[in-house]
Request: fold
Amino acid sequence: MESHTAGERHEATQRQADRRTFLGYVIAAVGAFITTAVGIPTVGSLILPALRPRQPNWVTAGEVSDFPTGQPKSVTVTVSSKDGWIEQSEAKGIWVIKHAEDSFTVFNGRCVHLGCAYSWQQGQNEFICPCHGGRYSLDGKVLGGPPPRALDTLQWRVDQGKLVVQYQDFRLGVSQKEEA
Amino acid sequence: MTALDSPKPGSGGPVGRLLDWLGERSGAGNVWDAFFARKIPMGVGWLYTLGFASMFCFILQAVTGLFLAVYYSPSPDHAYDSIQFLMYQVPFGAVVRGIHHWNASVMVVLVVLHMATVFTLGAYKYPRELTWMVGVGLLLTTLGFAFTGYLLPWDQKAYWATVVGTNIPGTLPLVGDLILRVARGGTQLGALTLTRFYAFHVMLLPAALGGLLAVHLYLVVHHGVSVPPWIWERVSPRVRGIGGGSVAGTADSRESYHIRYEQAKREGHPFWPDIIVEDTIVAAVVLLAVIGLMVALGVPTEAKADPTDTSYVPRPEWYFMFLFQMLKYFPGNLEWVGAAVLPPLGLLLILLLPLYDRSPWRSPRRRPLAMLAGVLMALVIVFLTYAAYQ
Reply:
């Protein structure tokens, strides 16, 4: 009789423990649902916009006829960019070399060493950066000084007689051309 | 029960061992015992989940608010555009704002319902008078969040409702002008108003609510959850004033209260997992309701604030509508009575309720006067809100 009572007591304790474990699982499951339902939109709103690729920035550099053949020409283009909800326009320098009516080379106007503005030296037939003495040939190859790679070329197209350039900045001071 | 022998979730296995290690080093077992292993008296059911549901709303507001702050710019030049950017350019941005917007309304509803339940069950009586008063502070802070929050989008509703809202205390004699200037940061509603509303909304009020909530929770744990009046009709000893003792000649005494309360606790359920499972389910239902409201009614956007607009009819959010309507019944020169005297007076009545309602009865059937006053107050608020929408 006594052992039967003890067995019953044991069974009741076991049932109680099972019930507690089950309720623990229910709490964990509902808690996980709440965390997921709130976590996905909130964390998503924080992370996803930061991973968005940059929108290409196509700007008009000028009429094709404005560019002398075989001669580098410095052009200042106005690049509009969106910084979140703020629209801004920035003046950026590029160098355009016309080879033919439908053939161009366009360089980003920043020296790939540390970002100074370089210029074409007619007498020396070289691009020279005044900051640290970087030297480039007409086709952008490094002739001397600290620049780790050739000048950054930009994509271009001719649209209704106008030269249109995709302005882009690249990482400075590295040997590979990588998007900034 | 000590920290070592109390049952905890996840005991056993590597996770359990890690928790045990952390528990021993941090003393978290004591917190576990105090908060989760405590017993809740018999008779406590779903009605008692409203407090937890209100707290869940606050946590949800804090979490979504934190992510809104990532994109929000508190200046009249950028506030509106930054919200438009969040709504239409940021993935899930509209969802995060939608949850924050609708949860604000749900939080007001739940806080008021929680209060109405505590009132009806007479749970504000001995020894929980201070818990009630801190709770009234929490209600005020919640309304403060609501008021400072809706200026932030800097749209038409935000701008004009705040013009009216800050003009209301401005009608007070003597101090009105000072209050209006302090509220706006000057005479005009503009950049200085927006930054101070923002600072209050994201810094001062969360700190205030967090602090009050900590005290409220401490008191809830310290005194234990009240036994419902259908089990215990008359539990509070008569208390004379704030510092007084029991009234001579009554059967109740503090000692008998505590003895009976301990008995009720012994016959009750452990907070973990019996009660918290109900709280968690209610929290999930609240979240689903908020998402449902957002899906059904959308995330409101208005035109950008235009201080020169003469056609816009400013209307506050629904929870301030009764105040808005009440002003219509006061003639111009007495408007300040309806605007700045009656609401604080009503709040004071609610705040001090446990100090002047000293009857020992907790059952609503034995408190006809209190129940009549409570129902009347609720009816007036409902009627004024209804009339405002007609």
Notes: Residues 11 and 107 of chain A are 83 Å apart (CA to CA). The interface with chain B takes residues 20, 23-24, 26-28, 30-31, 33-34, 37-38, 40-46, 48-49, 84-86 of chain A (CB under 8 Å). The helical segments of chain A are 2-51. Chain A has two domains: 1-52, 57-167.
